[in-house]
Amino acid sequence: MECSVRGILNRIKVNRFNAKLAVTRCESFVAILTFRDAVGMTSEFNTFRLSGAWAKRVVPGDVVALQHAAGDLIGYAKVVETHTGKFRDMEREFGINNHMVIDAEVRGESCDLAKVMTECYGGHRFNPEGTVSVIELRRIDGIGEEGAS
Asked: Cα dist. 134→49, 77, 84 in Å?
């Protein structure tokens, strides 16, 4: 969602104190997390993303949209925590709460998170020794409805 304030600030070059203005956060902006498979998104879950960039894009308390890769809205969630580190370390510490792992466990199967990441990003981009962001999320039901939290 485009922030309406951005257009205003683009027209303001310098204020009377000779200071440039910039928007670093906007309450009307909602980051979109896209998912190949809309599974395992229970009340609390996490998602692994390549690099440390996502841990800088969202912070605890932010609301994010959950979108299926086909473009359909899945729902919304609130960011609880973010973590960055080497994939192997993050998998060991946070893998059990990954949405794909949760779904596999419900079906009585196991989930190789490194294989899932390779399928999602390709072997040329995903490196098990590379850095990832882990975004811990809590689903929000009824967003936009009166009385929703």
From this structure: 6, 14, 6
Q: What is the DSSP letter of 5?
A: H
The set of residues, in sequence order, having a beta carbon less than 8 Å from that of 81 and lying 6+ positions away, is: 60, 135, 136
Domains, the chain, ordered by start: 30-140 (2.30.130.30)
The pTM for the full model equals 0.79
For the record, the structure tokens of 135 come out as 């975004």
Local confidence pLDDT in tens for the 149 residues of the chain: 445 555 555 555 555 566 655 555 666 678 999 999 889 998 999 999 999 999 999 999 999 999 999 999 999 999 999 999 999 999 999 999 999 999 999 999 999 999 999 999 999 999 999 999 999 999 997 654 433 33
Residue with the two structure tokens 């990832």: 132
CB-based contact 35:67 (threshold 8 Å):
yes
Give the residue from 107, 126, 109 showing the smallest Cα distance to 117.
Answer: 126
